[in-house]
Amino acid sequence: MSKSVKKVVLAYSGGLDTSIILKWLQTTYKCEVVTFTADLGQGEELEPARQKALLLGIKPENIFIEDLREEFVRDYVFPMFRANAQYEGVYLLGTSIARPLIAKKQIEIAEKTGADAVCHGATGKGNDQVRFELGYYALKPDVTIIAPWREWDLRSREALIKFAEENQIPIAKDKRGEAPFSVDANLLHCSSEGKVLEDPAVEVPDYVYSRTVDPEKAPDTPTVITIDFEKGDAVAIDGVKMSPATLLAKLNELGRINGVGRLDLVENRYVGMKSRGMYETPGGTILLPAHRAIESITLDRGAAHLKDELMPKYAELIYNGFWFSPEREMLQALIDKSQEAVTGSVRLKLYKGGVHVIGRESPYSLYSQDLVTFEEGAVAYDHRDAAGFIKLNALRLRTLGSRKRKLGV
């Protein structure tokens, strides 16, 4: 552990754990602390974080609170959704995609304030430590990183509470006991892990859900909406133009009331263990099939299939923390190129947890009713051409078949 740190930028929520980290940095490193609190749409009042930092001795000029909702959705969530990214086929990467933006802002604040170190509150067992630190190193290769959970000896809840009491850190009554589960939230999703969720054989308790109504209790009448896309990004709902963050918030509300977006998942963490979690991503769960639907009529088959082949790699890069890697940027350029004609409207029906595409149209549609119709007409497709096409594709199969006969297999 280096003791030469003069000033550190801490990712600070204002909660008990990061408040303990703040005081620990002051007492262990004897350094000046700068706090950074990001509004990513987690739905919490952030002004208490400022007051808590002041209470713990942070200078007003060293407290940074930034509203990053629009930047988060525009520059991180939407580019990811252009790729239809899902880790291990189901996870919409709500936690993963927030980390590079937080890391980027921490480094920017470090440069602005002359800090020589950054600090995060991620534990030594999770993925977030990797995501944060890969981001830090990519943007400031010589930065000093402090990861308290890998350094300190506060290994239990009792030890944390004792440290807080000894250092006059306010402790809310509901924070004195062990939390039944941990929560991470932003505008894209809310994730819950640990404690009551650790046994993957046990159903998620009802009280864990916070962003969606029980699908069984959702309205008996479906909600029908239209989402407009321009170059792969959603731009309007029911014809009303919206900013990226406003649009996602609207989809979240539509998903919430219809019980859309619940996911009970056992995932493979990058650090090597399996983890069970419950994710609620109402808006994203609507946006993904809508985007795939508009792509279904505007993307060429080759482009669409190549995107589907590359998507797992792209999703894995984000999950593992490689947002700032050259390979992610290369894939992004390819993905964005594919979206040039992904413009049009998709109509969806939301009903008791389900998202159903019921219509799609685009001025750049490649769908031709003349080509697919069973009716005879003057079209560019001659049925007789299929015979030669099939024979050419069957050539190697016929050759192999002949050999199998000779071999008697």
Walk me through the structure.
Its main location: cytoplasm. It is an enzyme of class 6 (ligase). Belongs to the argininosuccinate synthase family. Type 1 subfamily. The protein is of the alpha/beta class and 409 residues long. It has three domains: 7-69 and 97-178, HUPs (Rossmann fold); 183-299 and 341-361, Alpha-Beta Complex (Argininosuccinate synthetase, chain A, domain 2); 371-407. Helix content is 41%, strand content 19%. The strands form three sheets. It has a five-stranded parallel β-sheet with strand order 3-2-1-4-5, sandwiched between helices. The longest helix has 23 residues, at 385-407. The mean pLDDT is 95.
* CATH superfamily membership of the largest domain: HUPs
Using only CA atoms, what is the Rg? 26 Å
Biggest beta sheet attributes: 5 strands, parallel
CATH class of the largest domain: Alpha Beta
Distance between the termini: 68 Å
- The CATH architecture category of the largest domain equals 3-Layer(aba) Sandwich
How many β strands by DSSP?
14
The neighbouring-strand order within the major sheet is 3-2-1-4-5
How much of the sequence is in beta strands? 15-25%
Provide the CATH topology of the largest domain.
Answer: Rossmann fold
Task: Provide the number of structural domains.
Answer: 3
General form: elongated
Quaternary organisation of the protein chains: single chain
Query: Which residues sit in consecutive blocks of at least 5 with pLDDT less than 50?
Result: none
Overall pLDDT confidence = 95
Residues in helix, %: 40-55%
The succession of helices and strands, N to C, reads: EHEHEHHEHEHHEEEEEHEEHHHEEHH
What is the structural class? alpha/beta
Number of helices: 13
Catalytic activity: L-citrulline + L-aspartate + ATP = 2-(N(omega)-L-arginino)succinate + AMP + diphosphate + H(+)
Keywords: Amino-acid biosynthesis, Arginine biosynthesis, ATP-binding, Cytoplasm, Ligase, Nucleotide-binding
Domain Arginosuccinate synthase C-terminal: 181-398
Family: Belongs to the argininosuccinate synthase family. Type 1 subfamily.
